[in-house]
């Protein structure tokens, strides 16, 4: 028994010594760790390292309501070696960097509509792609009518910054021709066919109209790549066109508003005399989709899996995800998740597999 205690004492002693040395050399250890982290980030091509397939991530799962854990709505889609972004909500460009899917790799952006929470980071996305990648041509941006004015507005707001950066870094680092965006506006007729807005070898991207009145022209997008598919709803109420567009899709990334939880917000705001907030909480019920309704639509469409984003209201603790979903999982019957920033789904080509991961996992420790 004495030998056991001596052995334990030795182990404890060595542990104390080790911790002491680590504390003494903590600065040096931190610098070594920093170098290793940047070597991994800057020396690698994270998109090229992905297997051939369709990959979908949440660079922003939130809404206009403040949520410290969620950026504004943004979905990153990697099709083969091309990286795309659907919407650019506030804070989402930073998430792209943290997810190691940097803006310089973005081939094009797609906008669903022009509510501020869906375009708030568009200027930052254009700037980071340009300055971080020495882009020689503007970022191609696709969206419904009104896009030209939005892009020009952001370019105007960033004109002074553009000049500063060219003067400081030089035209080789930030080529003047690559600043800003190249808008490609289209019209998705509610009575017409889905619009093919982009086509590349193995890839097709369609836009389809959704219900977000009084926002006219709002759309969702369907990406098809070598037999795998994803639909991104954008903001919408219940929509027959979305059901059609999502037919047999592998993954449906759908907005979600829980009326039962918003009712709590409205009740508290009313009792507190915050009539403006109470009015807004009442109004937003009419142009978003309850999770249980989205679950029924997904089941009707034959969707394989559902990922909720644009989460309303904020869910500060995971225990609220149950009340948010209600009976949605039971109704749908397949894989269903409440989205978080960093969620990443891989759909490899030539397979029915679906691999889930979290590209912000290390930051959440």
Helix and strand arrangement:
Blueprint (H helix, E strand, L loop, with lengths): L1 H23 L1 H17 L10 E8 L13 E6 L2 E5 L5 H7 L7 E5 L5 H4 L2 H12 L5 E6 L2 H11 L1 H11 L11 E6 L8 E6 L2 E7 L9 E7 L2 E5 L7 H6 L5 E7 L1 H13 L3 H9 L7 H11 L3 E8 L8 H5 L2 H5 L3 E3 L4 E6 L6 E4 L7
Parallel strand pairs: 3-4, 4-5, 5-6, 10-11, 11-12, 12-13
Antiparallel strand pairs: 1-2, 1-14, 2-3, 7-8, 8-9, 9-10, 14-15
Number of strands: 15
The side-by-side strand order for the widest beta sheet comes to: 6-5-4-3-2-1-14-15
What do the pLDDT scores average to?
92
Q: Tell me the distance between the termini.
A: 39 Å
Structural class of the secondary elements?
Answer: alpha/beta
The radius of gyration is: 23 Å
Order of helices and strands: HHEEEHEHHEHHEEEEEHEHHHEHHEEE
**Parts with pLDDT < 50 across at least 5 consecutive residues:** none
Beta-strand proportion? 15-25%
**What is the tally of helical segments?**
13
Helix content bin = 25-40%
Main β-sheet description: 8 strands, mixed
Silhouette: globular
Please sum up the structure shown:
The chain contains 13 helices and 15 strands. With 365 residues, it is of the alpha/beta class.
């Amino acid at each position: 028994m004495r030998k056991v205690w001596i052995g334990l004492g030795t182990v404890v002693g060595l542990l104390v010594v080790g911790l002491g040395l680590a504390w003494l050399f903590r600065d040096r250890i931190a610098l070594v760790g920093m170098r290793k982290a940047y070597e991994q980030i800057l020396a690698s091509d994270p998109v090229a390292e992905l297997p051939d397939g369709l990959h979908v991530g949440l660079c922003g799962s939130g809404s206009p309501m403040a949520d410290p854990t969620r950026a504004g709505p943004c979905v990153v889609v990697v099709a083969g070696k091309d990286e795309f972004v659907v919407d650019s909500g506030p804070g989402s460009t930073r998430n792209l960097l943290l997810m190691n899917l940097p803006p310089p790799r973005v081939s094009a952006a797609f906008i669903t509509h022009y509510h501020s929470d869906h375009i708030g980071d568009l200027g930052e996305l254009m700037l980071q792609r340009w300055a971080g990648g020495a882009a020689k041509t503007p970022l191609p941006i696709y969206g419904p009518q009104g896009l030209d004015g939005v892009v020009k507005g952001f370019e105007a707001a960033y004109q002074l910054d553009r000049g500063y950066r060219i003067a400081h870094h030089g035209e080789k680092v930030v080529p003047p021709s690559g600043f800003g965006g190249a808008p490609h506006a289209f019209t998705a007729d509610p009575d017409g066919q889905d619009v093919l807005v982009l086509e590349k070898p193995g890839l097709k991207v369609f836009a389809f109209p959704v219900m977000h009145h009084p926002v006219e022209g709002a759309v969702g997008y369907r990406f098809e790549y070598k037999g795998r598919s994803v639909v991104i709803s954008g903001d919408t109420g219940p929509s027959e066109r979305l059901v059609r567009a999502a037919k047999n899709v592998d993954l449906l990334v759908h907005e979600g508003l829980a009326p039962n939880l918003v009712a709590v917000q409205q009740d508290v705001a009313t009792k507190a005399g915050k009539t403006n907030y109470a009015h807004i909480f009442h109004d937003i019920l009419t142009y978003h989709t309850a999770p249980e309704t989205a679950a029924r639509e997904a089941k009707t469409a034959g969707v394989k899996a559902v990922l909720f984003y644009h989460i309303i209201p904020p869910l500060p603790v995971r225990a609220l995800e149950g009340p948010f979903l209600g009976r949605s999982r039971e109704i749908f019957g397949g894989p269903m998740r409440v989205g978080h920033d960093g969620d990443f789904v891989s759909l490899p080509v030539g397979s029915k597999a679906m691999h889930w991961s979290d590209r912000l996992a290390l930051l959440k420790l």
